[in-house]
């Protein structure tokens, strides 16, 4: 494959990633609404640690665990912001 083939692959993967991140955001928003009803805090560090542990276990590489967790820290930060925005 040449560069343009690999870039096309990335473009296709990005469409999937965007769809999945938005599905994750839908779930986070639903959780946010339930938290609001139950008067629970948006930030739940123990749950976030579980997510990080699961992500680390699922990591097939080539990303290092620390690199993948860096991406996930941003994703979760955005999910928290979404929950607060919708409160
Ligand atoms: C989505 C939740 O809210 C927050 C966001 C999380 C996430 O994006 O995985 C995890 C914990 C919470 O800090 C949740 O509580 O499950």
Automatic annotation (TrEMBL):
Chorismate mutase domain mapped to chain residues: 1-87
Protein name (database record): chorismate mutase
PANTHER family referenced in this protein's UniProt entry, alphabetically: CHORISMATE MUTASE
EC id: 5.4.99.5
The keyword Isomerase belongs to this UniProt entry's keyword annotation: yes
Biological process per Gene Ontology, one example term: salicylic acid biosynthetic process
GO molecular function, one term: chorismate mutase activity
Keyword Ribonucleoprotein (UniProt): no
UniProtKB keywords: Coiled coil, Isomerase
Pfam families in the cross-refs: CM_2
Coiled coil: 3-30
Catalytic class of the enzyme: isomerase
């Amino acid at each position: 494959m040449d560069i343009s083939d690999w870039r096309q692959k990335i473009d296709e993967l990005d469409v999937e990633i965007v769809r999945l991140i938005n599905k994750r955001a839908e779930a986070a928003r639903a959780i946010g609404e339930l938290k609001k009803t139950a008067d629970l805090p948006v930030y739940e560090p123990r749950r976030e640690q579980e997510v990080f542990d699961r992500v680390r276990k699922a990591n097939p590489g080539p990303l290092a665990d620390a690199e993948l967790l860096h991406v996930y820290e941003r994703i979760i930060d955005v999910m928290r912001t979404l929950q607060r925005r919708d409160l």
